[in-house]
Amino acid sequence: LSRRIGGFTDSVIRRMTRIANAYDAVNLSQGFPDFDPPEALKQALAAVAGGSLHQYAVTWGAPNFRAALARKQSRCMGIPIDPESQVVVTCGSTEAMMAAMLTVCDPGDRIVVFSPFYENYAADAILSGAEPIHVPLRLPDFALDAERLEDAFRLRPKALILCNPSNPSGKVFSRAELETIAFLAGRYDVFVITDEVYEHIVYAPHEHVYFASLPGMFERTLSCGSLSKTYSITGWRLGYLIAPATIVNGARKVHDFLTVGAAAPLQEAAVTALNFADDYYRQLVVDYTTKRDLFLNGLDRLDLRYTRPQGAYYVLVDITEFGADSDLAFCQWLAREVGVAAVPGSSFFREPINHLIRFHFAKRAATLDEALTRLESLR
Ligand code: GLN
Question: What interface predicted TM-score (ipTM) does this complex get?
């Protein structure tokens, strides 16, 4: 077998879901909702099922879907996006990120990744042959250290990966931080590959600033996103990459040979979601704010320590007081004995950090209540 696959393990996030299932634990590990998408979307799916869209869509995305996506992202990002030349529809943002790296990096190129980071990026870097340079964010609030970032840029990386709002930390990069990144990206001529799948899950007073919308940044940004989180359809595997036409031309070739294309009937059905009015996104924030507060209030009652998420739907909880040998052992014990599954924090950090575990709260109130009730046995 290849040396490449020796470089990484299976996903700990997805492994924790299998462990949760084995122990019948409340699964707050892999982040996905236990509630249905909007009714209109389910109806749109039912409608396409009876139609004739059972063959390949256009490789880089069905024209309908690209048009609706470009309209919606233009409105949200505040920049014009041409659906004909600046969009690739992918199988989830997972493929978009992989395609982005393969589009800009040659084997041996360096790529800057903040730590903590979403675990896929490490495997993506290995698969593309790029060498990650990790830049730690400063605990406990994950502040950007501009000097460390510049040190990394001095090593002449090809690209930086920016997950904003951030998984697993819940950090939302401030405009000032993004401007610092933009300044350095310009000075050192670095591409920025964003993962903005939580663009619509941001808690007041924080606001999401799209990196590509900063002055001069569209030209060097590969904006990756997804419909999974925004419309609660993680199983549809619909993502996208938006960038200038020259970059998109390259990404379309990569995408073509990776997957040929995303599912045609699902693209057609999802146009309904992309056409939702702004009210939908306002309500999404209200709903997730309620979930976040429910879960954090529960953690407060249990006197557990955590960093308050500003966006996304994850919270890193400090387990130092439990004196576990490892965060992985703690998570296995927690799933088996307490009946709640979390992800060990070490799977997100480059530094030897062992005292954090990640819960997600994209669940119905009843599920979160059940998890909190079970967690009471920690006390
Ligand atoms: N982004 C989600 C998480 O971090 C899951 C993504 C996945 O498993 N594809 O848990």
Answer: 0.93
